[in-house]
Design brief:
- The complex is a heterotrimer of chains A (344), B (539) and C (369).
- Chain A is 71% helix and 1% strand.
- Chain A is mainly α.
- A two-stranded antiparallel ribbon of chain A has the order 1-2.
- In chain A, helix 3 runs parallel beside helix 8 and helix 5 (88-113) packs antiparallel against helix 11 (203-229).
- With 539 residues, chain B is an alpha/beta fold.
- Chain B is built from 18 helices and 22 strands.
- Chain B has helices at residues 75-82, 105-110, 128-132, 146-159, 175-188, 205-220, 232-238, 262-270, 325-332, 355-362, 371-375, 382-387, 391-394, 403-416, 433-446, 463-478, 490-496, 518-530, and strands spanning 37-46, 49-59, 63-69, 90-95, 98-100, 113-116, 139-140, 143-144, 193-197, 224-228, 241-246, 249-256, 289-298, 305-310, 314-318, 338-345, 348-350, 364-367, 451-455, 482-487, 499-504, 507-513.
- Chain B has a six-stranded mixed sheet, sandwiched between helices. A six-stranded mixed sheet of chain B has the order 18-19-20-15-21-22, with helices on both faces.
- The relative contact order of chain B is 0.12.
- Chain C has one domain: ABC transporter involved in vitamin B12 uptake, BtuC (Orthogonal Bundle).
- Chain C is 69% helix and 2% strand.
- Chain C has helices spanning 33-38, 40-61, 68-93, 101-118, 123-148, 152-171, 181-188, 198-216, 218-228, 230-235, 240-266, 278-287, 299-318, 323-346, 350-359, and strands at 175-177, 268-270.
- Chain C is globular and about 60 Å long.
- Chain C starts with 32 loop residues before the first helix and ends in a 10-residue tail after the last helix.
- The chains are: A mainly alpha (344), B alpha/beta (539), C mainly alpha (369).
- Chains in contact: A-B, A-C, B-C.
Amino acid sequence: MSQVLRAKWLPLLVATVVAGIVLGIETKSFGASFNVYVILQTAAFDAVVGLAQMVVLAVGDMSLAVGGIGGLVTIAIGNAVDVHHWPVAAAVVAGLVLGTLCGVVNGVIIARTQLSGFIVTLATGSAFTGIAYGVTSAIPYSSVPSSIVSLSQGRASFFPYLLLVAFGATALVGAALRWLPDGRTVLAVGGNRDAATLSGLSRTRALVVAHGSSGLLAGVAAVMYMGVLQSATPATGTDWLIISFAVPIIGGTALTGGEASSVGGLIAAVVLATINDALIVLNVNTNAVEMAEGLLILAAVLAGQVGRLASLQGRGRGAGRSRQGRRSASDTAARGSGLEPVAQ
Amino acid sequence: MSAREPLGMPVTPGEPPARRRSGGGPVPPAVLPPPVLELRDVSKSFGGVAALDGADLVLAAGEIHALIGENGAGKSTLINVATGVFPPDAGAVLVDGEPVELTSPRFAAEHGVAVVHQERNLVGAFSVAENLFLGRAPTRHGLVSYRRVADEARPWLEQVGLGLDPLADARRLSPGQAQLLEIAKALAQRCKVLLLDEPTSSITEGESEHLFAILRDLRDQGTAILFVSHKLEEIYALCDRVTVLRDGRNVVTARPLGEVTRDEVVHAMVGRTVDAAAAHDHAAPVGATRLELDSVSTEYGHHGVSLAVHAGEIVALYGLVGAGRTELARCVVGLAKITAGRLLVDGEPVRIRNPYDALHRHGLGYVSEDRKAEGLILQHSISRNVGITIWDKVRHRLGWLSESRTRPAVESHVDRLRVKMQGIAQPVSGLSGGNQQKVSAAKWLAAEAEILVFDEPTVGIDVAAKEEMHQLLRELAHGGAAILLISSDLREVVRLADRILVMGDFRLLGELANTGDYPTVSRVVMEQITSSVHNVGPA
Amino acid sequence: MKSTTRELPTTREPGGGPPGRDGPGVASVRRGIVGWLVSGQSSVVGLVLLTVVTWTIFGTVGSGFLTSFNLYSIGQLAARDAVLGMAQAILVVMARMNLAVGSVGAICVSLLGYMLVDAHIALPLAILVIVVAGVLASLLMGVVELKTGLSSFIVTLAFLSAYGGGALLLTRNANYEITSSVLGRLGSGTLVSAAVCPLVAVAVVCGVVVWLVYNKTAIGWKMLAVGANERAARASGVNTPRVLLAGYALSGLLCAVAALMEASYELNVNASLGTNWLLPSFIAVVLGGVALAGGDITVAGILLAALFYDSLQSGLTILNVPSYWLDLAEGLVLLAAVVADQMRRRRQSRVRHERRQRLTVAGGSASPA
């Protein structure tokens, strides 16, 4: 399994490293330690946002509420510290608990109503954003605790301390998906829902665990962002959507569920951040990055499709005997609202 | 580990244990313990149609029990009841003589009843060993311990002869290996009863031999095995007793195979009194060749299939579940790909890429086997369902389309088929099965398709509608249509067909002209089917 | 199963399901309360009631709600949201979704701004160009979906950022101030009375066109068929790829119209227009009674949903509810509407039954065993 996943982002990583080195030689500012620090800091943050989406993709679902939860957690922490003068640790813990709860709510609604994660999280995500804006009247909290700021902005030459948080989150999520029974349940339900249900695994539990973890990770991302920005603003999360999908998909996580690579996501985050930074250094409009991200997602998903179809066809005659004929792997990505691609 | 002694101690397959019996050898047990699994007088209906009607199944420990039946005989329903997918409407399920209520497959597994379906159910991204323990992976300190998963899986894998790395991806298994894995999974759950549904349908000959050796060993260790199959050769080689279902009831119950001849089994499967009324009219003149397959291979695995259908002719394609008939039909009408050979319409080789091509360029229609999911748009009206093939033809030059423009064609065909409805605006979902099937067929008639494939057109519909459908087929043939009729109902085939093509395992097994004499025709057909041994070539 | 067993009459669903699509005049013969509730018709009546109630309440409680000024601005916004809803509905009807409605709108409005302000192109020609642009941009997404077999979600998600970024890139974040008086009168003039914005007429015209497409053209009927049951439509000889592309094209056209509408009353546009279009487009669809599973459309419902929803927002604003709570309301309304829609569909209890079917052993045709 790890071979298949590695193959996808390896060429991209190599290309990025090579291009980075070339750029570093050509442009002095690119290779400067401060610039590398900026790249890695962005990558660290993107990686955690990507993890928040990845755990939901693993269960075969998706969440458009990652940003909304991020915003809500941000203002909750901001409020606790600024208005109620809570100690930092308590505020952060409370914020993370809130994020987890928001995720759990999503998971429960999706499991109970059997609606697709898309439409439910579209709604709850905007509700969370709305609450964040409503409570703060769109005014950000300006005093972010110094401990958070020094964590988010601190560095050792080119190495941002934030990257440690990203490493930690990546390792924990990867470990949870590999060694925790609940993590295996999430992947089983995402990989083959019927096999999982027939073996007595609970889809409800898998959804709640996945969405709850997503909320928790969104909360972590919110804390990181708050420190980088030095402001707890309710606008946090409004532009997290694309990144949350781009990172795991480019990193090799399947849209259909059952497979997730947290390390792949980390690498993808570094790649994306490097591309972003390179384009800025080269004075290319940053909007090109948005475009590039969209195209990269398409390419990554397509590459995954090709790989999957190839392995299906190689499986011998018995595999072809399905009465339904072949269906593309992505058509199950938005299951629940009956979405299907058009057959050729 | 459980307190009970594991049923299957790891044994090297192939080693003959002392008291090995050959399949069919009459060794009646001296003392009869209660059957390990019994389904007593079980009935189950779906939508008013009885799938099981007081059926019985008796499985004893230490036997391989064959379950035989045509399509629609009730085998899958019986298995579903036995594994807790749904409860029976009437009757009882007993495990070791005690009545139990099996509320879910998981519950059934806990009572020792495990099933290996025809379709694989594995999580591809997980390892072989983890699939074996799906949902019950051994842990150490609350975390999944992959070493234990691999170690504890090994004996079970060895027992079924899967000598591969337990941590290999399940994705990489061949269908035969995947099936063995599912058997190992069942064994690891200490199953007392193992139900196998058409286990040799997708595996190679070598894998079948291996499977049989494993099954014999399991039987000798006391497992009760239910072997659902239609391949009499295999059944006579492997099994001890046989039960034959027909139309939801038992015809033969738990008879030792040594006491039942093949003829008796075949007769049990299909033997019926057939009324002579409405006998087939063989004098119908047959016209030009409308549809021809020349050495066709398909993406489903058909090889070298050749057949022809002439104008005015009804050619029946008969076979059992998994024979590949529907798949072939789908390739003919463009729903799936032909990979080799030629498809000819009116003598010209054609390439049909989709049903749009098939209908609008070549006049080919396909009345789907799955009328609810593919033959009809249930939420739409009868008018919309019947007219869908002619919208482009009846619309105004400028693109205008209205119900009034489609009404004449729709009404005339709906009347011709005598669809019982409240009006053409009625949603199709409100019609009975028979009338739904008529609507599903009507749209092709409205389009004036002249080459028609009818796929199981009378399954699940009432007697009167069936008669009307048969009458329709005769009328269409007399009117010059070329009809390919896919059917699993031998009576229907004998009544309607001019020629009968017998299909099994994605190959054409034989062809015969229909003499109209049910006993002889049915016997010839069933013999052709039940003597086919293997489907898949060497891996 | 076979003919030897007597078949009991098939159980019929109460209400017989949604009425056939025979146009508004033909009522389904047997329609119990349940059937009526499930049908699109009930949304329309419900929405009319809700709108009336909303207007009554806010008219009484809030001062200034029922003024022609306020009603005018409601109409302005509702008109745009209705057209947006239609753009989204076209794809939802085919059991898909269009996440890129806003980005296609961004492309259109950027082109419009550039042509009117920088290139001084006459308005009629500019309008033509952006309509073509909207159609082409949308068609491209359809082509990608067909060629790659990817779901509409991922394709339109990718294009959401590709087009959005592209528009910003090409315009270099420029702001365009539109001075066309014709456009100004469209967006800020009056029609008949001071309370009615001409954009309302545009929305109604679009509604009529969409209604005609779905009720009186072959392509519309085919889109409904593809959405209701794509397998069956395909097996019945419908050219599903062509139908899909037609749907994307129509959706793109409506995005262009929506962009034009917003440009006509904002008068100051840039390529970030459309970033807040996604939620309103879905709200109009879901509230309007259009099933998320596809196969069914209620144009009047979409128009009324937009009217009701924007009336609600306006009323809350008049009552001095901070606008941020309106965003919360947006999410909650969508959630409530979606859950209600799901419960309505559940009455047919197909979901549970299908799961059962899938877990049973494959054997024979549609009926088990």
